[in-house]
Design a protein that fits this description.
Blueprint (H helix, E strand, L loop, with lengths): L12 E10 L2 E8 L5 E8 L12 H13 L8 E6 L3 E6 L7 H6 L6 H20 L2 E2 L8 E3 L9 E3 L6 E2 L18 H4 L7 H16 L9 H9 L15 H8 L12 H6 L8 H9 L4 H14 L10 H10 L23 H11 L1
Helix pairs in contact: 3-5, 5-7, 5-10, 6-12
Enzyme class: transferase
Keywords: ATP-binding, Kinase, Nucleotide-binding, Serine/threonine-protein kinase, Transferase
Family: Belongs to the protein kinase superfamily.
């Protein structure tokens, strides 16, 4: 169960500058009075009643807090404290100053596969630890893969934003329509029972983008993107993967598998020859290969420009409010309106996109 402190956060922390803002709150730099250590304070407005349109549901924040209080790993952002007042929850988190991994890479002139693999290892180690606790992230994308400090010669990866994370219990069947279209797995679109394998699909997409600078399933519209995912419609075009090793392509192919049970798990990925070469020849081939930096820079620039249009959360406000006010369903099963640490966005829910996809096919 999530643990909240009833004390005033300002009795323990000095509140500093705003680091970011979203629909329902702000992230501010805070200084711990007892030690002088700096942290990130995530100040979230909570709904006063079930029919309110302002603020987050307390239960949704509780789920995120429960996850973060369970996992402690070098590659997962740490949660130190949670304070509760009448209309606000404050999460005191490890401060992450290095920015997004993709921005860090885009600033480079070139990047060998072997260098990119060092980042992938950390992502997989953090994710593997999360999965070992029967927790899925369900929102893996470049915006949620950060660096603790980009000035370090060996930057440390931090997975952030666990607002959609879910802990699985034995015998449980869990479904969700949460996520950003180009990163979600087919079983999410089809509203099938989910598992930690959904995260591994996202890893496959992220790796494809990292190597080629292209998104494997991206269409002109969200509906087209979802169709491409369901049809498993992607390819390794020669002009975009000319510098990519065959092992890297094999790594991706073993993740972009429609059947979740056939995908590599995080621990399998760490043993794949692309990550851990078995022979000198494999290591040499990997070390001669590089990512398509020209394409990658273009992708990252477009991504930053379009961030305000990306789907961050399942946000079906009107339906949510109508159902909630009529008390016709369990609030925990309803879709929720949420915020992102890095984005102030809102878009159509995946369920609506799925219905449109079905009606037009």
């Amino acid at each position: 169960m999530a643990v909240f402190k009833p004390e005033n956060v300002e009795d323990f922390y000095e509140i500093g500058d705003v680091l970011g803002s979203g629909h329902f709150g702000q992230v501010r730099k805070v200084r711990e009075l007892a030690t002088g250590t700096y942290w990130a304070g995530k100040f979230l407005k909570i709904r006063k009643n079930s029919c309110s349109r302002l603020g987050l549901e307390r239960s949704s924040v509780e789920r995120e807090v429960e996850v973060l209080q369970t996992v402690q790993h070098p590659n997962i952002v740490a949660l130190k404290d949670v304070f509760e007042s009448r209309a606000e929850l404050v999460l005191i988190l490890e401060i992450v100053t290095g920015g997004e991994l993709f921005d860090f890479i885009a600033d480079k002139e070139n990047l060998l596969e072997s260098e990119a693999i060092e980042f992938m290892k950390q992502i997989l180690e953090g994710l593997g630890f999360l999965h070992s606790k029967n927790i899925a992230h369900f929102d893996l994308k470049p915006e949620n893969i950060m660096l603790s400090d980009k000035l370090s010669p060996n930057p440390n990866i931090k997975l952030i934003d666990f607002g959609l994370a879910h802990r699985f219990h034995q015998g449980e069947e869990f479904r969700s329509t949460s996520g950003t279209p180009q990163y979600i797995a087919p079983e999410v679109i089809n509203s099938e029972p989910l598992s930690t394998a959904a995260d591994m699909w996202s890893i496959g997409v992220i790796t494809y983008i990292l190597l080629s600078g292209l998104s494997p399933f991206q269409g002109d519209t969200d509906q087209e993107t979802l169709r491409n995912i369901i049809a498993l419609k992607y390819e390794f075009e020669a002009q975009n993967f000319s510098e990519t090793s065959s092992m890297a392509k094999d790594f991706i192919e073993k993740l972009l598998v429609k059947d979740p049970s056939e995908r590599m798990a995080a621990e399998d990925c760490l043993l794949h020859p692309w990550i851990k070469p078995i022979t000198r020849k494999q290591e040499a081939n990997r070390n001669r290969s590089s990512i398509n930096m020209k394409n990658f820079k273009k992708f990252n620039a477009r991504r930053k420009w379009k961030m305000s249009y990306n789907m961050v959360w399942v946000c079906n406000r009107l339906v949510h409010l109508q159902l909630l006010c009529k008390a016709s369903s369990d609030p925990d099963s309803l879709q929720r309106q949420c915020e992102s640490d890095s984005e102030d966005t809102e878009s159509k829910p995946a369920s609506l996109l799925r219905r449109r996809l079905s009606s037009s096919s």
